[in-house]
Every structure is written in structure tokens, then in C-alpha cells.
Amino acid sequence: MAEYLLEMEKITKEFPGVIALSDVTFRVKEGEIHALVGENGAGKSTLMNVLSGVLPYGSYTGQIIFKGAECRFRNIRDSEAAGIAIIHQELALSPYMTIAENIFLGNERASNGVINWDETNREAVKLMKKVGLNEKHTTQTRNIGVGKQQLVEIAKALSKNCELLILDEPTAALNDEDSGHLLNLLQTLNKEHGMTCILISHKIHEVIRIAHSITILRDGKTIGTLDNTERVSEGRIIKDMVGRELTDRFPKHIPKIDGIGFEIKNWVVHDPLDEERVVIEDVSMYFRKGEIVGLAGLMGAGRTELAMSVFGRAYGKRISGTLIKDGKELTLRNIGQAIASGIAYVTEDRKTAGLVHIHDIKRNITLANLKAIARHYIINEDEEIVVGKDYKERLDIKAVSVFQRAGNLSGGNQQKVVLSKWIFANPDVLILDEPTRGIDVGAKYEIYKIILQLASAGKCIILISSELPEILGLTDRLYIMNEGRVVGEMITAEATQESIMTTIIRSSAG
Amino acid sequence: MNGIKEFMDRNMRQYGMIIALIVIIVFFGVVTGGKLIWPRNIGMLVRQNAYVLILAIGMMLCILTGGNIDLSVGSLVALVSAMSGLMTTILGLPSWLAIIISVMTGLLAGMWQGFWIAFVKVPPFITTLAGMLVFRGLNNMILDGKTLPLSGLYITIGTGSVPDIAPNTVPDFLGIGDLLQLQNKPEFLNATMLVAGLLLSAVYVLYAIFNRKSKQLRGYEVPPLRVVVGKTAAFFIVINLFSYWLAMDDGLPIMLILLAALYAIYTFIATKTIPGRHLYAMGGNIKAAELSGVNTRKMMFFVYANMGFLAGIAAVVTAGRSMSSSPNVGVNFELDAIGACFIGSASAYGGIGTIWGAVVGAFIMGVMNNGMSMIGFDVFLQSVAKGLVVLLAVAFDMYSKSKSRLS
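Output (C-alpha cells, whole complex):
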């Protein structure tokens, strides 16, 4: 089997409290497009971080063999020098630099430390042609779209003479046209230049379209590698990815729905940076107590913006419209007032906005409702420990103690801390924005249980999720949003993924 | 014992700092031939470095918000000092009124800076750099380059001690005077100081006992008994030894009461109150804090207003000690205060640091200032040494943090 370009053997990687990869084997043949699929938290990114040296040799166990030789990468530079280039989901371009400068950033065409601009520009133009990027090389990257930025990243990888190109969710942020273009480019590079690619993607149909082999990871383990020359079925891959039938993914729940608890009427929000631009356009919604209402839509549909603007104007300028809670009109000028009025918002951006990572679990839990453990503004720290322990137990947060730093927990447990914080704030209306993003399958199930319990306790639950199965599996009713407007409302029992997508696409066309 | 280990882990940073302070005291104690720890010098050390401690407390709050610093405090001390001169010598106001107006001037200047930082969003570095120039300039405009003498309450605060309640009654019963072979041994000890030390430590011991008991009664978690006993005993001994030392000199400095009060008040605010908690939260992650309902603008405003207030107090103390209001007072004070905070384990990114740390850091700064002067280092060499100590302290902190992350 000398045809393998890359062999990763028995890779195991542990983070505090979680085994991210367990005995993973992953082999890529020379000259193929190899797709790596799996749910969020299955270990794809961790595996690629091991491969590219982001997680250095010694922090994992197992062996990496590239081009027949064992590799011990200490950092990204090492792996790049060996010929491995990785393009991350979050693009790493410098916005105020030109395309040409970005392509050669960190790899400057220079002699004796002095940049040779003529060569830089000439080479950049060549590379841009190769990846089909129709822009001037002197354009600043902030002025081109995400799809084109992706091409700049690929050009950058090519400039380093890479032999193995890894793309992590390259089409996640792209529209269909740009995605198609990118996938064609990959096929061209593969066929004409013999470039070996690893493609990480959630979009199964894309994977089936272009990959030669497909490796499936689940819960940090290799489930298997499929030969895709005969085009395997989507169902087969999903079954391997999920490992159980879709019906088991959500806990059983009998909704107890009461009267209307919260209403948004004629809500209009403008962009904080460009006050002329309308982000939310005349949105009206109602939410009943005990009901879980989903907000479905594509990225950029305005769901997060709607939620944050309702949450004490945490987003947006020139906001107008009415909020009615328990029949009374609310005026919320800041987040503190929103929390005091019984509204909570669990951010989609857990890493940067959900937790104070350097503080311990208990402090994070009490942060939004310190008044509950204080008298005359003086905090009872003993009571805080009691509260922390109570939530640690109730939500089954896996940690040594409530004194452990929140930053050291796994994604699922961090999310449980965030949820604890908002449950402790005792809201009547709980807005959950992508509550299971980046969380492994087991922890997801637990979070679903918590959400359902909160609904049973009579709270209005608003669930924003990009995963349609999650919306279909959890909610009682759903609103479909597109381009800042409500374009549909459905009883979940009567909705399907297709009917939701059709509604979105029709609204864009009309 | 698991409990003790956990407690030690949680309070590692604090013990590290105290050990550093002890090492520095022992070092300078030895190289000055014991002179550093002579009672006379200890009293002087406290008075001489009070300004660092007061400014470091305020600076710690600024740093906690997110690694922000206040460069203007040295110049603000100068401005407030000039105001003191203006009020008393030129306008002839009584010194108590002048002190109130002076401190209010500091507060107003702090509010001015807080306004630009919190509401106009000018970065603190720029705002306080501007303040540094403006306040120094105002000092020179007011004083016209002259030095004015101060009197009255200023002198009392700057140099005075609480009167002895029972003079010439308590002898040097531990015989420390002979032990240290002091040049002019005191015949009797200052009774006020001894009583104050005893009272304070007794109150602390009682508090520690009752606090633990009541926590146990209400079913809260308590630290292991051995830890509590050890800590309380150490506190008792240190406080009484310290007061014995000062009692051998001229007793309880009024300035020490002020420092103790400030320390107690700010520790309470930082650790026990909601605003204090909000401060730590915003320094740890400003976005998360905002989404949890923390009004970060208001916090910024109050933190910088408070810094001005404390700079006002530091100015009164400094002016009182030098008995004058002069154009070049307060130069580099901001750097001493910032240095003290970082020596005291503040995180340069905010969210980590304690008032206690600022105080210990200030003492380390003070002992170094004092010790190096005693062994005859010139100012420039002192500056080099202090700079290196700040650098090493932060480097050590970074190193130990990277260690703890791996484990």
C-alpha cells in the first residue's frame, strides 16, 4: 500500500475532561479528493489540528506518516514546510492588505529580506489565474466577497507548493453559485495538477459529488472509509455519522402550552454601522408559555439580529416596534432591563461572548443574577457556592468542582454553564441561539432535555438553529425568516425540511 | 489532605507574592545591616510610600477593567497639590476646607477622564496621556513654577501620629531594642499603637471564629480548620509585631489609619459587592459581561472617577509629608503604581488581580525604594532595578500560568 500520501495511525487526543479523538486511523491516497465528514464535535477539526501541527507532536498519541516518512510537527510552519496546507473555516486574511500581499503573507517573495514587488505581483497574477479569481491583484481583500476570499486562501496555499490541501468547511459561508465554482476548482486542481485534497464538509451532497473516498468520524472514532467512485447514498453516510436513527436524537416530550406570554410587534431594526440599512423589517411574532418556537432560516436571515435587538437593544440602531410580555408593554433600553424583565438570551457565540473563561464555574453561573445571592449589593459568596453546586448537579456539568475555570471545560459543559447562568436568572422568555453548536452528540441530547424541561416549566422558548433537524425535532411551532423578514409560519408537526427550504427559496425569488 | 491542597491551589498567587515580599525584606535587611527594619525606618517607610499604595489601589481597578491603565495620576497628584497651595497659601482658606476641595478636584478630574473614556470611547491610554499633559500644565500655571509651603491639617496627615494614651508606662518588654542594638533605644513603648494592634487582631480572630461557626451552622462549605487557625495565628502575630515595631518609634501614624481604611473599603468593594464582581467580569470577557447585563460604560466611568478621587487623596498625603506644594511633585508616580499592580499579580489583560496584591506590590516597591536609597544606589540605578523587577514579576507570572495550563 505505497500509494498512500498520508497515513494517520491510532491517533488519540485528550482535552481536560473529554476525549476528542480515540484511536483514529485516517489514510489518504495520492491524487484523490478525500472527504472527512461527521457531526459537530465528531473530531474532524481536532484531527486536522493534529495533522497541521496546531496541536504539536507530543500532545497526542499515534503516528503521522506523510510521503512515507514519520512526521513530528511542532507547529504549522513545520507542516507547511512538509507540504501540507490547511484553510480554516475562519479565513485568515488581513483585510487592509491587497490580494497579492495576502497570497504571499508569511511567504514573501524577497531577497535578503527586501520584498521583490515585481515578482510578488507577477506570481500573484499567475496564481489568481490558476484559481480563477477575476480581480485586480491590488484590490484590498476586505473589498471582495467571502467566495473570492476563499480563492485567495487557496492561491496562498498553492504559493507554498503544497502537496496536500485541507479545506475545513470551505462552502459553509458561500451561496450555491460560489460553492459550485469552488468545488469545480477543486476538481480542476485535482485532475490537472494532481493535487491531493482533504475536504471537511457538512454538506453531504457536495461531498458525494466530488470526493473519491469518504471517511466518517463519530464521537472521536473512525467509523469507516467509503469508496465513492460508485456514489454512495446520502442516507448511508448520515446513518454512519449519526449512528442511530434520527427519531432517537430528541427526547420524548409532551408539550403543555398555555396562553401568549411574549409578543414582538412591527419590529424594525437598522444596521448599527450603516443606519440607513434595514436589518429587521416589520417582524411580528408571538410566543406562548410552555411552547418551543423555532426560528428557521439561512445564515444572515436576521435571526440573531432580531433576538439581540429584542434583548435590551444588544444589537442595532433606530429600533422601533413593540414588545409585549404578559399583556404589558415593555420598554427596554439596555440589557440589564431586559434581564430584569425576565428575558434571557443565550448567545450563539459561546467562545467569545458566552463565558468569562478565566473565572470559575460558580462565578459564571451567578453573573447575570447576582442580586439573587446578594443583599444591599453585598454578595454572599457561600450562597454562591451552594448555587454553583446545585446547578452543577442539576445540569450534570462534568467538572472537578465549581471552582474549576470555565475555560477548561469541554464545549458541551461550557454550554451547560451558560445555560445554568440563564436558568439562574429565572427568565420567562428564553432565547436560545444555536445552543448546540460545536457540541458533541451526547451532550446535545442532554441540552435538549434541559430545553424541554424549561418549556415544561411554562417558559416561552425561542430556538434559533441552523440545523433543521434540530428545529423539527424540538419545536412546537416555527417561524421562517429570510432577509430580515418573516416569510412563513408553520406548525412543526406539519413541516418538513423541504417545505421550509422551499419557503425560503420562494421568498428570495419573489 | 485534599482540602488543604485545594485551598493552597486556589490561593497560590497570594502566597507567591508574600514570599517575594519577605525575600526582598530579608535581602535589604541584611545588606543594610539591619537598618531597614529599625523601627524608625519602618514608620518612615510607611509614610514615604503611602502614595504608591493609595494610587495602586485605584490603578488595580483600572487594570481589572481590561488591562487599562491611568497615565495621568502623577500629574493629577501635582495638580491637586497645586490646588492645595492655592487654597491655603494664596486664598487663605483653612486647611480642612482646602483638603476637601483638593480631593474634590481630583474626583472632578477623574470624572472628566471617565467621561471621555466611557462615553466618547477614547481609549484610556490616550485620554490619560492627554490628562498627564493637561494636569501637569495646570499645576505649573497655578504655582507659576514656585513652591508653596503648607501647614495645619496637611502636616498632621502627612507626618502626625495618634497621641499616646499612656506615655511612659509600657517598657520594651520583648527587649527588641537590645536585640537590634538600636542607636537610641526607646525607654518606653507607645501604648496607643500596642492597644490598636491588639484590638484589630482580636477583632479579626473573633471574626474568623464566628464566621466559620455561622457558616457551618448554615451548612456552607468552610475551609479546613488547620488553614483557618494557621492563617488567623499568622495574622495575629504579624499585626502585633508590626504594631510593636511602630510603638518603639512614635506610635500609630495617622496615615496608617487612612491606608488601612482604604485597603479595607476597596477590598470589600472588589470582593463582596455586585459592582466589584461586575468589574472582574468585564475584565475577564467584556462581551460576555455586557450580555449578562453589566453596564460596562458606567463601570469605566466610575473606575476612572475613583482613580481621580484616590489621586486626590494621594496628593494630600504627599503634600503633607513634604509640607509643600511644588511644581515637580508626582513625577513617575503613575509608573510606581502600575508597577506595584503588576508585581502584585494583576493580569495585563484584566479580570485578574486583587487589592491585596496591589498593596503587597506597593510594599515591595516601597521596600526597594527605601532599601536601595539606604545602601546608596543612585536614582538611576534604582530605576533600572525597579524596571527589571516589574519585568521579572510579570515574566514569572506568565511562566507559572503556562505551567498550570499544561497540567
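Chain B has a mean pLDDT of 89.
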